[in-house]
């Protein structure tokens, strides 16, 4: 492994994923050979490179090689006769960054390859690059400017700070072009500072951060005393949001909702207009839905989660929240009673499907998997066997991470319960309690899940020891 500083390039082709099978064949048999003639001389001098599908990644110690490759790659596709070949037009997106990376001999590929945080940064620039263009970071631009040879044939147009792909933060980007090419008016749109028209919500002050850090780890009594003190008066919206999160963790759901309602009415005034930074913020809405569910206000909670889904939050977490609403309605009666006689099988099936889809979208998340396993057992018959198999999968997949946190360890214990290993589950819970000292929210959520299973599986006597263990302070 070798540490080097280099110019890192990522390329991609807009439209490639939509090629028909016939067009993909033309790409590799006709277009790719012509492209290789253009870029092979540069890749031969690269510190490392790789390709997959339409993508090329390369790192150069020589800035001129990096720039010339980017421009030649761009021009090749921008000038290519796609109509003559009978295929969809492909537009290049090229991202560039400069920094330290690590190269190594890749024995599978038989050549040098690379990795490192700066390689990851370069990969996040390409997806936000305008089709047909080259976007690079300030680090790339400044590294070029420090080279001995003049680069009078290129120019950099300022784009401002741009949000990178996959929540990778913001970077100051520049459009790289030939000096003979004109700047584009659209570049000025990228450079606009909108903080005046769309002001950000105030950050936590250092004093507020210290208070939040302190009371997040205190006991129930001290935190309740803190809530009644004047220390929480006249604070920022972000402070009250963090306070609401702590309330939820202590099982103080009404107090959490009160703080959420407080910040929903929090506004910033600019040009005579009121902006409400928290009213539609997704993490605030998720917290609100969670607490409303705990308070039995299922309709409002369901509306919030469904609105998050419609807003495009089609992630595992949102699906699991929606599944929890169906699960609760399927299992719990109007007076909060739990009985095998009132189970709504249709809602239970919907909840199970939502949990499975959530797990499919994020197979690293054990939460929807263990919940789907529970619902399979509740459904009974052959579905119950699927619950045992899924519980076994959870155990096999996450057992090597036992000890990380309360939720993981309690999930492992629950997977043993679902496989009818009740004695083993009690031992696992005892270890987890001793190891993690769960707070009131963690305990109550786990007890509710297990108590529901005990009632619906008619194993209240056999599982009494586990519930007593979890209930003991």
Molecular structure report:
- This protein has 473 residues and is α+β, with helices and mostly antiparallel strands.
- α9 packs antiparallel against α10, α12 (298-310) runs antiparallel to α13 (316-331) and α13 (316-331) runs antiparallel to α14 (345-361).
- It starts with a strand and ends with a helix.
- The longest helix is centred in the first third of the chain and has 23 residues, at 21-43.
- It has three domains: 2-190, Nucleotide cyclase, GGDEF domain (Alpha-Beta Plaits, 2-Layer Sandwich); 197-313, Tetratricopeptide repeat domain (Serine Threonine Protein Phosphatase 5, Tetratricopeptide repeat, Alpha Horseshoe), CATH 1.25.40; 358-471, no CATH class.
- It is 54% helix and 16% strand.
- The protein is globular, with a radius of gyration of 28 Å.
- The strands form two sheets. Strands 1, 2, 3, 4, 5, 6, 7 and 8 form an eight-stranded mixed sheet that branches. Strands 9-10 form a two-stranded antiparallel sheet.
- The model has no long low-confidence stretch (mean pLDDT 90).
- β4 (91-106) and β5 form a beta hairpin.
């Amino acid at each position: 492994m070798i540490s080097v500083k280099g110019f890192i390039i990522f390329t991609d082709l807009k439209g490639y994923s939509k090629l028909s099978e016939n067009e993909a064949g033309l790409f590799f048999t006709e277009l790719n050979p012509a492209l290789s003639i253009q870029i092979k001389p540069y890749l031969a001098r690269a510190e490392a490179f790789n390709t997959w599908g339409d993508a090329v990644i390369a790192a150069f110690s020589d800035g001129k090689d990096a720039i010339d490759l980017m421009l030649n790659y761009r021009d090749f596709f921008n000038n290519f006769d796609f109509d003559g070949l009978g295929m969809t037009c492909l537009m290049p997106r090229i991202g560039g960054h400069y920094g330290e990376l690590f190269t190594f001999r890749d024995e599978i590929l038989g050549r040098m390859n690379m990795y490192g945080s700066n390689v990851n940064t370069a990969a996040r620039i390409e997806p936000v690059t305008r089709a047909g263009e080259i976007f690079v970071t300030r680090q790339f631009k400044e590294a070029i400017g420090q080279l001995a040879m003049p680069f009078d044939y290129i120019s950099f147009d300022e784009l401002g700070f741009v949000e990178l792909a996959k929540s990778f933060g913001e970077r100051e980007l520049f459009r790289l072009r030939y000096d003979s090419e004109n700047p584009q008016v659209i570049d000025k749109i990228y450079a606009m500072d909108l903080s005046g028209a769309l002001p950000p919500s105030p950050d936590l002050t250092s004093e507020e951060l210290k208070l939040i850090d302190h009371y997040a780890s205190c006991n129930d009594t001290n935190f309740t005393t803190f809530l009644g003190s004047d220390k929480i008066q006249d604070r920022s919206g972000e402070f009250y949001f963090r306070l609401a999160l702590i309330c939820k963790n202590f099982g103080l759901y009404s107090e959490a909702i009160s703080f959420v309602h407080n910040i929903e009415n929090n506004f910033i005034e600019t040009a005579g207009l009121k902006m409400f930074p928290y009213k539609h913020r997704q993490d605030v809405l998720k917290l609100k839905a969670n607490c409303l569910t705990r308070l039995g206000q299922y309709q409002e909670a369901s509306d919030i989660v469904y609105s998050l889904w419609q807003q495009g939050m089609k992630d595992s977490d949102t699906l699991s929240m929606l599944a929890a609403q169906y699960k609760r309605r399927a299992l719990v009666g109007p007076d909060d009673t739990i009985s095998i006689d009132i189970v709504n099988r249709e809602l239970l099936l919907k909840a199970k499907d939502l949990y499975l889809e959530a797990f499919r979208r994020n197979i690293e998340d054990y939460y929807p998997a263990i919940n789907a396993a529970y619902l399979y057992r509740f459904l009974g018959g052959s579905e119950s066997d699927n619950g045992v198999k899924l519980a076994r999968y959870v155990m096999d997949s996450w057992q090597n991470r036992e000890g990380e946190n309360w939720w993981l360890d309690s999930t492992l214990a629950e997977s043993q319960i679902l496989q009818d290993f009740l004695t083993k589950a009690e031992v696992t819970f005892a270890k987890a309690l001793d190891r993690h000292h769960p707070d009131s929210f963690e305990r109550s959520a786990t007890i509710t899940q297990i108590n529901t299973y005990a009632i619906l599986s008619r194993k209240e006597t056999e599982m009494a020891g586990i519930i007593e263990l979890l209930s003991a302070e």
